[in-house]
Amino acid sequence: MAELVLKKEVYEIIGAAMEVYYQLGRGFLEPIYQEAFEIELGRRGLPFEQKKELTVLYKGHQLEKKYVPDLICFSQIVVELKALERLTPVEEAQLLNYLKMTRMGVGLLINFGSRVKLEWKKYVI
Prior knowledge:
40% helix, two-stranded antiparallel sheet, 29% strand, Lambda Exonuclease, Chain A
């Protein structure tokens, strides 16, 4: 159900990521893509929060260490950016942990480092 509800929002986020990929190409480090992506989201009027710290609980105790996803868009979609040759299960696990921490049902893993095209995956839990 969440997949259908957020279809338009995901489409808009991926459109912004594609524009960044087409403008910059591959080969930059992740912080460059993150800054350009935030500019593009802003240009398009898409709401987002950057580097929001998430509290981790262990058996009722709040840990000092925090999880920090790259972006939360539309207050409901966790977006994790990468600049890798290819995505691996490690990056997928990271995003799934963010989804568990935020209790948000939709996450996007966007990779600007792929050789052929922008690589992205949508996760719905």
